[in-house]
UniProtKB/TrEMBL annotation:
Adenine glycosylase active on G-A mispairs. MutY also corrects error-prone DNA synthesis past GO lesions which are due to the oxidatively damaged form of guanine: 7,8-dihydro-8-oxoguanine (8-oxo-dGTP). It comes from Candidatus Contendobacter odensis Run_B_J11. Keywords: 4Fe-4S, DNA damage, DNA repair, Glycosidase, Hydrolase, Iron, Iron-sulfur, Metal-binding. The keyword Iron applies. This is Adenine DNA glycosylase.
Length: 351
């Protein structure tokens, strides 16, 4: 199938069946497209839509985002996961305001130097917002092209990645680039799905090598299996007589970076002694709650919540950048991870 026929078939399908009412398709400025592309990384469209709408309502432009506190950005992001994306958004907005006058440069080389923006994301911003002739290679497009070209191997391998980029460049048309870019993403998401692809409805089925082989599920090859690690921790639900609980801001990088969480106590230590040593708090430890299992991409975390009542003065733990006494009944704009949010809600029901 020639590149021209490929793109025309994709565009014809899009005109008839593609998604045209997504919120970021309305007034697709570079800023709005950028926000949507970052949110859509490893996250489905249906999940992203309400987050995107709230985010854009609060931060309608680069300067509003750059001037915001990171805590508020993380709070609006809470639940989407992969929180480095939110930190990168915030930092990139600041860089663009400091170095580019509060506008997003329409230059792919400059965009790729910004935090959290790789080649595919930069290409999508420029194609969708400026109709620039830039290929993209998100997860859905990788799968579609791997099947169409029967490209063997896992897409994370550099050799396979190079081949897929060559295909993406070959088939991206010069005209209607924005429509084609949305179309190829939609086709991957809606038709060339990971399981049970709808080949009968695919405009590219005639030229698809994997379909001709009857081996659609053989492409792309999965990531080599690694046994998922299991980690365990104890989260301390330290509560005062007034009902406030102690939250600690996590380091800026790593799991839940920059979010607020409960202090985590080593499994082997005595909790009361540890609280006295770490915080100067006298506590009465209560029986632990049931374990919570939280899955990350590379490991699972087994959380044992342990409530403890602070029996002495709580003011010895200084509030500030690292700690805060938080009333779960009066929510404030603080970013917390999903399991912490659930535990806070459970604490609120006890007050």
């Amino acid at each position: 199938m020639s590149p021209n026929e490929f793109s025309q078939r994709v565009l014809g399908w899009f005109d008839a069946h593609g998604r045209k009412q997504l919120p970021w398709q309305e007034n697709p400025t570079p800023y709005r497209v950028w926000i949507s592309e970052i949110m859509l990384q490893q996250t489905q469209v249906e999940t992203v839509i309400p987050y995107y709408q709230r985010f854009i309502e609060r931060f309608p432009d680069l300067r509003k985002l750059a001037d915001a506190e990171l805590d508020e950005v993380l709070w609006l992001w809470a639940g989407l996961g992969y929180y480095a994306r939110a930190r990168h958004l915030h930092r990139t907005a600041q860089i663009l305001c400091e170095q580019h006058g509060g506008t997003m440069p329409l230059d792919i080389a400059i965009l790729q130097q910004l935090p959290g923006i790789g080649r595919s994301t930069a290409g999508a911003i420029l194609a969708l917002a400026a109709d620039q002739h830039q290929p993209i290679l998100d997860g859905n497009v990788k799968r579609l092209l791997a099947r169409f070209g029967a490209v063997a191997g896992w897409p994370g391998q550099s050799r396979v990645q190079t081949t897929l980029w060559e295909l993406a460049e070959r088939y991206t048309p010069v005209q209607r680039v924005a429509a084609y870019t949305q179309a190829i993403m939609d086709l991957g998401a809606m038709i060339c799905t990971p399981r049970r692809p709808y080949c009968a409805a695919c405009p590219l089925a005639e030229g698809c090598a994997a379909h001709a082989q009857g081996q659609e599920m053989a492409y792309p090859e999965p990531k080599p299996h690694r046994k998922r690690l299991v980690r365990a921790t104890r989260m301390l639900l330290l509560r005062t007589l007034e009902g406030e609980v102690l939250l600690e801001r996590r380091p800026p990088v790593g799991v839940w970076g920059g979010l607020w969480s409960f202090p985590e106590c080593p499994l082997e230590v005595d909790i009361a002694a540890w609280c006295q040593e770490q915080f100067g708090l006298t506590v009465v430890v209560k029986p632990p709650w049931g374990m919570i299992r939280h899955n990350f991409s590379h490991f699972q975390l087994d959380i044992t919540p342990v409530p403890a009542l602070v029996s002495g003065p709580a003011g010895v733990v200084m509030e500030g950048e690292r700690f805060v006494w938080y009333n779960p009944c009066h929510s404030t704009d603080r970013g917390v991870a999903a399991p912490v949010k659930r535990l806070l809600a459970a604490l609120a029901t006890e007050l």
